[in-house]
């Protein structure tokens, strides 16, 4: 820390609580706050920055995939989020770092920004980026979400799912050396042809997880504890097990969304429309 005066953050985020680049930024901000160093964020557009959805993280589930009390889709750029972290005193012991954000030009939260380069090996295109807020929860189940196929985060399936015409077989590939259900033929659903507008309209959509849960009929063996770390609250799993619909569950976190929109407003750098 003695060898530099200024730490520059320049990385492409996708605007989700469990997409962990922002956690690295927060930890670096904390280290800089502790050692009197300045942070400069070169801001970038958020490809999921046009909406807010999902429950606010219950901090008892704080982890490496959820570090701040924010919704699943927070709709902020990293620069805006850094300002909020400082302003809300979210760094450990309420520390604040010296922060400068260089904003994007010609960007608003209504801008539908398409990434020129994939942000990570398994988010290969915009369809995966848009479906990610609804598909990632399969990481906490036995169901494959397409790692090891040409369509990661755009399909889901399991060898024992029945009633589906679509199938795929995960293989060991670069970025997914040992994917779930490796070498097994999985039956399920291909979402890659869904229109972007329909994905945006649905927002965080738990209907895919609910579909697989009901189809496999595994009861308590379907969900792993990692599910709560991803969804961030304790009420979603019981509601799914009780037979509630995706719409009923979404209604439960509507208040979180409205609360967060008001809370984040002082830290926004770009118009919301």
List keywords for this structure.
Rossmann fold, 6 strands, 9 helices, Aspartate Aminotransferase, domain 1, alpha/beta
Word description of this protein:
This protein has 273 residues and is of the alpha/beta class. The radius of gyration is 19 Å and the shape is globular. It folds into two domains: 6-114, Rossmann fold, CATH 3.40.50; 126-256, Aspartate Aminotransferase, domain 1, CATH 3.90.1150. The mean pLDDT is 97. The protein contains nine helices and six strands, in the order βαβαβαβββαααααα. The termini are far apart. Helices cover 30% and strands 10% of the residues. It has helices at 21-35, 78-87, 126-135, 196-202, 207-216, 226-231, 236-241, 246-252, 254-264; strands at 6-9, 38-42, 98-102, 155-158, 166-168, 186-190.
The helicity comes to: 25-40%
Tell me the distance between the termini: 40 Å
What's the CATH C level of the largest domain? Alpha Beta
- Topology-level CATH name of the largest domain: Aspartate Aminotransferase, domain 1
Order of helices and strands: EHEHEHEEEHHHHHH
Q: Helix segment count?
A: 9
Structural class: alpha/beta
Shape: globular
Beta-strand content bin = 5-15%
Cα-atom radius of gyration = 19 Å
Domain count: the total is 2
Largest sheet: 3 strands, parallel
- Supply the CATH architecture of the largest domain: Alpha-Beta Complex
Low-confidence segments, given as residue ranges, are none
Query: What order do the strands of the largest sheet run in, or round the barrel if closed?
Result: 1-2-3
Count the E strands.
Answer: 6
Mean pLDDT: 97
């Amino acid at each position: 820390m003695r060898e530099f005066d200024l730490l520059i953050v320049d990385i492409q985020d996708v605007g989700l609580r469990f997409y962990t680049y922002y956690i690295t930024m927060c930890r670096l901000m904390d280290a800089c706050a502790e050692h009197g160093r300045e942070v400069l964020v070169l801001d970038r557009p958020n490809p999921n920055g046009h909406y807010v959805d999902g429950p606010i993280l219950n901090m008892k589930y704080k982890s490496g995939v959820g570090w701040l009390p924010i919704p699943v889709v927070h709709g902020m750029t990293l620069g805006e989020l850094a300002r909020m972290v400082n302003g809300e005193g979210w760094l450990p012991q309420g520390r604040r770092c010296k922060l400068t954000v260089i904003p994007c030009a010609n960007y608003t939260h209504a801008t539908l920004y398409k990434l020129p380069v994939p942000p990570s090996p398994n988010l290969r295109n915009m369809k995966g980026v848009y479906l990610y807020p609804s598909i990632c929860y399969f990481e906490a189940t036995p169901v494959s979400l397409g790692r090891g196929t040409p369509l990661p985060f755009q399909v889901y399936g399991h060898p024992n799912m029945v009633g589906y015409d679509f199938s795929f077989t995960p293989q060991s590939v670069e970025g997914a050396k040992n994917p779930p259900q490796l070498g097994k033929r999985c039956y399920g659903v291909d979402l890659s042809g869904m229109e972007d507008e329909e994905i945006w309209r649905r927002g965080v959509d738990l209907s895919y997880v609910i579909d697989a849960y009901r189809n496999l009929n595994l009861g308590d063996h379907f969900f792993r504890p990692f599910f709560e770390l991803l969804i961030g609250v304790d009420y979603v799993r019981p509601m799914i097990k009780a037979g509630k619909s995706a719409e009923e569950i979404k209604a439960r976190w509507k208040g979180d969304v409205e609360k967060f929109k008001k809370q984040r407003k002082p830290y926004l750098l770009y118009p919301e429309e």
